[in-house]
Amino acid sequence: MEGVGELESKIEKLLNEEKQMRLNGEVAGTKKAVTEILQLCYDARAWKTLNDQIVLLSKRRGQLKQAVTAMVQQAMKYIDETPDIVTKIELIETLNSVSAGKIYVELERARLIKILAKIKEEQGNIAEAADLMQEVAVETFGAMAKTEKIAFILDQVRLCLDRQDYVRAQILSRKISPRVFEVDASKEKKKAKEGDNVVEEAPADIPSLLELKRIYYELMIRYYSHNNDYLEICRCYKSIYDIPTVKENSALWIPVLRKICWYLVLSPHDPMQSSLLNSTLEDKNLAEIPHFRLLLKQLITMEVIQWTELWKLFSNEFENEKNMLGGSLGDKAAENFRERVIEHNILVVSKYYSQITLKRLAELLCLSIQETEKHLADMVVSKALVAKVDRPMGVVCFQTAKDSNDILNSWAMNLEKLLDLVEKSCHQIHKETMVHKAALKV
C-alpha cells in the first residue's frame, strides 16, 4: 500500500509539472514530464495505472501533439515487457484508442494494429486479425518507409487469403504495382532527401524489396490457384524466376522453371501463352531439365501427340511436383493437361485438313465421336478455332465461309498480283532483247 501511495504522489507531482509546462507551451518540458510518468508506472510494474495515465494524459486540455507522440512511442517499448498476453493486449488496445484519428501518430497506430493482429492470428482468430488489418490504409502514410508499406499490405492480402476472402484479397493486392519492385535503389535514396517530410527507416524485421517481391508473387499464385488461372500463375512464377537471388542458385530456379513449363502446358492456347512458350524454349537453363524441353517442343511442333505415350513419359514428373517448391499443380491439373493435348491435336488437324470426317478425327484424337464433338464445340465457342460440323454427313469443315465482299477482294488481289507478274515478265523480256541487240551490233 505504501508503494502504491508513493507512486501516486510522484505521479501527482509530475502531473502538476506537466500542466504548467503544457500551459506555457514548453514542448521539451511537457514531453519529459509525460515520459517520466510512464517510466514510473513501468518501473513499478503498475500496468493498470500505466493504461489509465496514458488515457488521462492524452485527454488533457490542449495537450501537445509532440507530447502524445512521445508518450505513444515510449509506451510501445513496454509491450514486449508485459507479464502476460492479457496485459499485452490491454496496453495495445489503450495505445490504439489514444492514437485513433490522430494523423501525427498514424505510423505508430499501424504498427500497433499489426502486433495485435499477429496475436489474434496466433490465437486462431484469422477473421478478427484480417478485420483489424483492413482498418488501416497505409498507402496514404507519408512517413512510412516503402518496404514497410508493402509488407503491411502483403500481410493484409495473406490474411484475406487465409480466410478465403478472394475478392478483398484481389482489391488489396492492386494497391501494389509490380513496377515498384523494379525501382533502382540509388534513385530511391535521392528521392527520400527531397522535401520536408521525413520518411522513417523501416524496422529491422521488414524484409528487403526483392524478398517482398517473392512474397507478393507467392501470394498472387495462391489467389490465381483458386480460379485455376494457369497463365497468370505461370507469369507469377516467371517473375520469381527473374529475381537475381533465385537465378544464382540452381536449387531454387530448377523447381521454379519446372512450374513455369507445367503451367504453360496447362494454359489454354492464346497469343500470350504462345509468346511465353517460345521465350521459355529459348532459355538456356532449360537444358538442365531436358524432359521439359521435349514437352514444350512437342506443343509447338505441328504434329499430333499421342496422349497415352505422353502421359507414360510425364506421369512420374507430374507426381513429383507435389514434393517440389509450390506443391502440387491442383486437383484438375491432370484433366486439364489432357484437354490441352486434345486442343493441340485439333489445331494441328485444322492446319492440314479443310474437311475431315468426324470418325477419322476421333481416331486421330483417340476419343469417341461424342467426346470429339464436345471438345471441338468448346474450342469454337472460345474462338480458338473456326469450324462447322455437318452432323447428318458426319463431316467437319475448317474453312471459313466468305461473304461476297471478301470474295471480290480476293479476286481483286489475285488480278493485281497477276498484272504485276506480267509487267515484271515484260520488263525482263525487254531487257534481254536490248542486251541481245547490243551484242549483235558489237
Automatic annotation (TrEMBL):
Gene3D superfamilies: Winged helix-like DNA-binding domain superfamily/Winged helix DNA-binding domain. InterPro entries: PCI_dom (IPR000717), PSMD12-CSN4-like_N (IPR054559), PSMD12/CSN4 (IPR040134), RPN5_C (IPR040896), WH-like_DNA-bd_sf (IPR036388), WH_DNA-bd_sf (IPR036390). The keyword Cytoplasm does not apply. Keywords: Proteasome. SMART domains: PINT. It comes from the Eukaryota. Pfam families: PCI (PF01399), PSMD12-CSN4_N (PF22241), RPN5_C (PF18098). One of its GO terms (cellular component) is proteasome regulatory particle, lid subcomplex. Component of the 19S regulatory particle (RP/PA700) lid subcomplex of the 26S proteasome. The 26S proteasome is composed of a core protease (CP), known as the 20S proteasome, capped at one or both ends by the 19S regulatory particle (RP/PA700). The RP/PA700 complex is composed of at least 17 different subunits in two subcomplexes, the base and the lid, which form the portions proximal and distal to the 20S proteolytic core, respectively. Belongs to the proteasome subunit p55 family. This is 26S proteasome non-ATPase regulatory subunit 12-like.
